[in-house]
Design a protein that fits this description.
alpha+beta, 47% helix, 318 residues, globular, Lambda Exonuclease, Chain A, two-stranded antiparallel sheet
């Protein structure tokens, strides 16, 4: 309990949630609940707490995450997109060729040995101060698909009609007695709506939901209904008027599918009612006042499992 409380209160200065380093920091994750953090606690309390305490980190597919971020950064701003590509260029592009480096150095009027190896040319080019062309080889397939995802969204008149407002807006507030944070892709305060841009493998895939007791779409399965509902409540508290959230989704297929999605109010109410039932217990687990439960099936539980007895075979599929 003391460890959790210390981590939560160790921040000695206000967080600036407009800054990504602060927004995604460990301090912010202790200070605030978020929809993504809540979902992790619902799935497995032990795994979520271990990750929060930085004692364990889940394995993930960095390329899948980067593809989504590649698309998001493009629609945030050209400057953010270029910074993203520069930061992740070794994962997005093949290395530039010797011929590309020589051509770039020639265009800048810089001397080099005609027999220079690639490493020497790279060193010369990287030593150039100030702005210079971003050199790279062929874009890798995953990000080539991301480019056509961007183009597919750009082709939609409805998207351009709606994509007007502030981008990447942090919002905070109290909900069910807990401090929450969220980041909104596009917020139009004047017209009272916001848009969350989602990338997904395939729209028509069905997922079984215990909460709904039936198959649902990726919108319900991935917690996006709750995300819209929570953001609507936080925005209403902040601005004193109702907001409606929408999803604009683009698939990772070739060619990509696109959809503009709204969510029925009864689904939002259902998700919020479940949140209200669970959040007090989850907060007590987070703060060390209750012992976290293991789900017994996730990556964390598999890696921290100790066999204590035999089980009957039917229990394998429960």
């Amino acid at each position: 309990m003391q460890t959790c409380l210390k981590a939560k209160t160790s921040q000695s200065f206000p967080l600036n949630l407009n800054n990504d380093n602060d927004y995604y920091s460990a301090e912010a994750n202790w200070q605030y609940m978020s929809v993504s953090q809540y979902k992790k606690f619902v799935e497995c309390e032990a795994a979520a707490l271990a990750e929060l305490k930085e004692e364990w980190k889940p394995e993930s597919d960095p390329i899948a995450l980067l593809v989504g971020n590649y698309v998001h950064s493009y629609f945030e701003s050209p400057e953010v997109h270029e910074r993203f590509k520069e930061k992740n260029r070794s994962l997005i592009y093949a290395d530039a060729t010797v011929a590309q480096y020589k051509k770039a150095l020639d265009s800048l009027g810089l001397d080099y040995k005609k027999t220079a190896k690639k490493e020497e040319l790279v060193d010369i080019y990287e030593s150039i101060e100030g702005d210079k062309p971003f050199l790279h080889g062929k874009i890798y397939r995953d990000f080539s698909i991301a480019e056509q995802m961007i183009n597919r969204v750009e082709d939609e008149p409805l998207f351009h009609h709606l994509w007007k407002g502030e981008r990447e807006v942090p919002v905070t507030g109290k909900l069910f007695g807990i401090d929450w944070k969220g980041k909104i892709d596009l917020l139009n305060i004047k017209d009272g709506y916001f848009i969350d841009l989602k990338t997904n493998a395939k729209f028509d895939k069905r997922y079984w939901s215990k909460d709904y007791g039936r198959y649902v779409s990726f919108v319900e399965s991935f917690g996006y209904v709750l995300q819209l509902a929570v953001y609507e409540k936080l925005l209403e508290k902040r601005y004193g008027k109702p907001f409606e959230g929408f999803i604009f989704a683009v698939s990772k297929e070739t060619p990509s599918n696109v959809e503009a999605i709204y969510v029925d109010e009864h689904k939002k109410d259902f998700e919020l009612s479940m949140l209200e039932e669970r959040i007090d217990h989850i907060d007590k687990v987070k703060m060390g006042q209750k012992k976290p439960k293991k789900c017994g099936k996730c990556e964390y539980c598999r890696g921290h499992k100790t066999i204590t007895d035999f089980i009957e075979s039917s229990a394998l599929i429960e």
